[in-house]
């Protein structure tokens, strides 16, 4: 989909993304119509191309994954824009930050423990995470009374949960 065919307002939304990795993917797709995992690895040096695609999706830009033949004849993944009418307005620029009060409330309710491994950590080493993955539920409006939708995880458990969710067929 050459960028000349996109409405100017939509181009403004796409160009509003400033983070380097998702911006690189968006610019490549605007210029060439799609980007392959091999191009992301070889041309741009991304060791984990699906993460670059996820970064675009985290910006609120829908991408679809499809298969193409790589230079060696094997099937590889490629990404192109999905239904751009489904751009999540207000999400351009990334996920919204959690209020500091949420972490305080979670620590008060559950202590300074990782919800997955139950190890106790200093509060600064714990991260707020959605109980229902962001990829499934999106970033709904924060309700300070709904702390049950969030949990505290240490960085390692948060990355493991994220990886598991990214590779889940659901």
Structure description:
The protein starts with 7 loop residues before the first helix and ends with a helix. It has 2 domains: 84 residues, Orthogonal Bundle (Arc Repressor Mutant, subunit A), CATH 1.10.10; 67 residues, His-Me finger endonuclease fold. The model has no long low-confidence stretch (mean pLDDT 83). The chain is built from 7 helices and 5 strands; from the N terminus they run H-H-E-H-H-E-E-H-E-H-E-H. By secondary structure, the protein is an alpha+beta fold. The protein is globular.
Radius of gyration: 18 Å
Order of helices and strands: HHEHHEEHEHEH
Distance between the termini: 28 Å
Q: What's the helix count? A: 7
The CATH class of the largest domain is Mainly Alpha
Strand element count:
5
**Strand line-up in the sheet with most strands:** 1-3-2
- Identify the quaternary structure here: single chain
Briefly note the structural class of the backbone. alpha+beta
What share of the residues lie within helices?
A: 25-40%
Task: Describe the structure concisely for a colleague.
With about 170 residues, this protein is α+β, with helices and mostly antiparallel strands. It contains seven helices and five strands; from the N terminus they run ααβααββαβαβα.
């Amino acid at each position: 989909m050459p960028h000349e065919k996109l409405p100017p307002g939509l181009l403004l939304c796409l160009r509003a993304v400033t983070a380097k990795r998702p911006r690189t993917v968006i610019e490549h797709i605007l210029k060439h119509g799609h980007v392959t995992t091999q191009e992301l690895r070889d041309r741009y040096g991304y060791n984990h191309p699906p993460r670059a695609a996820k970064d675009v999706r985290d910006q609120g830009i829908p991408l679809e994954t499809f298969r193409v033949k790589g230079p060696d004849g094997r099937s590889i993944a490629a990404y192109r824009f999905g239904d751009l009418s489904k751009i999540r307005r207000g999400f351009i620029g990334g996920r919204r930050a959690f209020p500091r009060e949420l972490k305080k409330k979670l620590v008060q309710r559950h202590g300074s423990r990782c919800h997955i491994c139950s190890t106790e950590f200093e509060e600064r080493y714990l991260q707020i995470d959605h109980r229902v993955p962001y990829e499934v539920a999106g970033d709904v409006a924060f309700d300070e009374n709904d702390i049950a939708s969030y949990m505290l995880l240490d960085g390692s458990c948060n990355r493991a949960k994220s990886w598991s969710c990214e590779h889940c067929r659901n």
